[in-house]
Amino acid sequence: MTSEQEHFFGQLQMHSQQLQNIMMQKQAMAMRSRELEKAIEEAEKATEIYRTVGPILVKVEKGKIEKELEEEKEEIDIKLKTLESQEDRIKSKIKDAQEKYQAGSSVGG
Fold first, then answer.
1. Most CB contacts within 10 A, which of 42, 56, 59, 80?
2. Is the pTM here over 0.85, yes or no?
């Protein structure tokens, strides 16, 4: 294997690991977003809301908790969009590297 091929496969492996890491983060964020969405729906229906603080439940103001949930969901959704953008960039880098490698190997091979 030439050093150029080794470099290509090293880059490809690095990008693949980055992509896998981003996809795992994205999956976790998407799950958290769905959990928050469900919590917001339930909070809207509820007349009283309690929050766990250590081993006890404490009554909280409905409007305050709804606002906190909405803000957290917005933050998660922004992180999700950022991860999607990173995912697209890495997929593009992988595709470009593969195309360059194929072009180089068909010419030189």
1. 80
2. no
